[in-house]
Amino acid sequence: MTQGFSPTSTRRGTLAGIAAGAATLAMPRIARAQSEIIRIGFPTPLTGPFAAEAKDQVKSAELAVKQINDKGGVAGRKVELLVRDDKLNAGEAATRTLELIEKDKVHAIVGALSSAVQLAVNEVTRARGVIYVSISQSDTINEVKDFSRFTFHEALNPHMTTAAVAKHTFKKGSKIAYLVADYAYGHEMLRGFKRAQEALGATSVGEILHPFGAADYSTFMPRLRSMRPDILCICNFGRDQANAIKQAVDFGMNRQARIVVPVLLHNQRLAIGPEAFDGVVGGANYYWGLEDTIPSAKAFNDAFKAAHDGAYPTDYGAYGYTGVYSLLLAMQKAGGTETDKVIAALEELKYDVAKGPQHYRKCDHQSVQSVLVLESKKKGEMKNPADLFKVLATEPASEDILRTCKELGFPA
Amino acid sequence: MDAELIAMQLFSGIALGAILIMVALGLSIIFGMLGVVNFAHGALFMVGAYAGLWVASRTGSFWWGLLVAPIAIGLFGILIERVLIRPLYGRSVDDPLLLTFGLGYVLVEAVRIVFGSDGIPFQTPPELSGVADLGIGFFPVYRLFVVGVVAIVLVLLWLGLEKTKFGLIVRAGAKDPQIMRVLGVDIAKVWLLVFGLGVGLTALGGVLAAPMRNVNPEMGALVLAEAFVVTVIGGMGSLLGAVVAGLLVGVAISMTALVAPEMATIVMFALMAAVLLVRPQGLFGKKSRA
Amino acid sequence: MTASTSSLPAAARAPRSPWRARLTAWRVPLSILALCLLPWLLPSQALAVNVLIYGLLAVGYNLLFGYTGLLSFGHAAFFGAGAYVTGIAIGQFGLPWFAAMLLGVAFGGALAFLVGLLSIRTRGIYFSMVTLALSQLVYYTALQASSWTGGENGLRGFTVSTINVFGWAIDILDPVKKYYVLMVFAAAALWFVSRVLNSPFGAVIEAVRENETRARACGYDVERTKLLSFTLSGVIGALAGTLFALHLAIVPLDILSIHTSGMVVMMTLLGGAGSFFGPFVGALAFLLMEDVVSLWTSHWQIVVGTVFILFVLFLPKGIWGTALAALAGRGGR
Questions:
Q1: Cβ distance A188 to C146 under 8 Å?
Q2: How many CA atoms lie within 13 A of C72 on its CB side?
Q3: What are the structural domain ranges in chain B?
Q4: What's the pTM?
Q5: Shortest CA distance from B112: residue in chain C
Q6: A396 secondary structure, DSSP code
Q7: Among A168, B193, C36, C230, which residue is least crowded by beta carbons within 10 Å?
Q8: pLDDT tens readout for residues A3-52
Q9: Which residues, in sequence order, are bridge partners of residue C186?
Q10: Chain A contact for C305, CB < 8 A?
Q11: What fold is seen in the domain A159-284+371-401?
């Protein structure tokens, strides 16, 4: 049987945001002054497979900007968000970032939703000394080779999520099989899981690398089955993850093993439905259900729902909020947009805007924050259409689940 | 590596090949008869899957989706041929290719506008879900069903082409459209139907694939590349070639998945390049066709 | 235009209209003038650089598709090869930018020669398919060879901020300076392509396009002609790739994808296949359309796709080709 569905129309709010961005292009260029509007560039993939996440990012980022502006802005200056479509393409993202810097004269960039895009934006902003708050997962951006003193990484990284997920799912003696997307992000997730597996006394019964972006995983299933694992760890992302899980379930893998993923995506779970995801466990940066325990989450949810007809904020959307909010808080502290002062303020900042306490670690500018371990709910357990997950555990914000600065190649 | 695993892998490859055959067959029929390389074929596969989903959700039955969607999209294909492709006959062979290339963009974006860009779940019909014990291992019932449906369609197609008057005209028309015209056959009408048939086949492939892969607007892109590989290996325009090459590619992918899984995608392009270098017209292709 | 006129030597098939003749004689200076004005006419310099780079890529592609009549679906491979080799040469071997560019062009050209050698054995649709398959192989190779290429994360870490030209340091992080530095290379390439088209070889490739059998009967070595055209086309594409690398200072894996190949085909056709400046017009039209339409709807692809279909149906000569024909007041190209 198929699930009921309804055609969705384009989201006018986002379009209005883009149109507002377009309008600013036409405005005469004002000289940089204290009273000048603070412009934040926001490249995100409005088209392509992560369009839903991107639109949530835009909504959340706009909410952060609005809240700051309502409270008087940054040092008396209004803040404006310039949203651009990066099409999930690193070249396009680099071009849009150049435009934002060269033509729109933005004061900082926040955004990206893929490892490749974020590294491209990082490269452009690093060469030009522009502050960039990255909100996409990657281990690479923490390492010294790609480090930029202008870049802050608000998103989780695969090392953190895998450490947290493994801690709450792997047990001593667990037999784990890995299905891994064959690209940097997949390898990073595998590395994180295997490190945790060793520490926890579990064993690997096999690893299969699959081509990035594959649509059919049936050919890997007989071998995965023959490994007889207790845990099937699927290390990929987005559509790859959805298809791999669905086909693993078709082959009955969920009856012999628990399916574990590094990142459970809110919108992906919505798109695939509760049946395929039944019992799947994975990590996340945010889930609206946090509101029961964390006051800032409640405030964020309420503000978001009030602005968007009762819709709940999502994981990647929350990155847009926390990323923009932390930057603007630092600008407030720095009393403006002067690059070195803002960097210093970001390095010192302690913030709790949606998910409990966070701060940027000094050496690699990684946001130290909590990681949620979620389990997908059955259809019958869902209280409303957005009630997708149970929070199994919250791994508290701590540098213990990060790689050390020394390991990343920074001088001690 | 034990024999059971290899047997299972072989079987997965055949099941994978079944979907490839449906798509490649449509591509090959259209090319063989009309000389048109349909670059919108992948997009029509995707549109077929969405149509199946839509019908199934309206009627509450997967079976109606399986029956109605391919016919509806086949009719849509007829419309495409009549309105967009027909004006291009007599012009460069590249023109229909370029036009359908643009059409692919339009169809994908149109689906995004109507159904959103996130993808939609498509559950396996309950009567076909679960796994079956094949003796050598467990296999999803639904995939067995797909192999069965494709086999039936192939038999029907063969009967239609070999035993009916329409089939005779199609086969003759593929060989020499000029003679057919001289003989008083309305070749334009035949082309119209053949295009519709080819599109209907890929739409059927889309509906069949949907419960395995979910549906999303980009699902056609990868399929198109695979279908090209299959048709080129088999020989553009050869129906037997599409079937043999479909199975060959399916099995090649699944066997590569066993020994070097990360190479599972690259292997088909390597296979295609190799075949073309040895036999540029493909395994069953006719040399004269260009 | 009929086969008989186009197989005559270049001098004899000079356009009949005096307007066209003057335009053709001055096509290189006029094109360069247009490129000089570009950054001041477009909404952003980043867009102007993209028009320059993709326009050049399309000019190279046009040599193969428009003039030789070979529809390749794999030109991303040479574009990407030029970009990757330039980036690797600067980032991993510390070569100076100019040497890195030369290496990028040489490598791209060699790859084009190799792919050409394999693909021109096939004809028509098969040619398109083989080029597509081989470029997919290049894509997956780059994805796998991540220690060289950065894999899916893309190649990074080779930002060139200043370049020295005879002791004169130019800051190419400055968008305007960067544009004009890159434009010098594009201008040189345009001059080169114009020379090629005016040479006897230019007449031969058009003869091959119009009627391969006849060209063969006239004693031309069709295979060698195609191969040379393919390689030259790849060299120009690789040059565009090296400019891309210098411009963005990253090489994304997407550069090698089938979308890049398809985009070049669309640009060339929109502008006018087989016309000298058409590909630039096509790149301008395509990128401007994408830039402008994507500001008011995220569904820009439906607009681009529809425009493309309409062009195939009603304006197969493209924008520039149609404009030229209108200017000449006759149907000739």
A1: no
A2: 37
A3: 10-219
A4: 0.90
A5: C299
A6: P
A7: C36
A8: 434 333 344 344 444 444 444 444 444 444 456 899 999 999 988 888 88
A9: none
A10: no
A11: Rossmann fold (3.40.50)
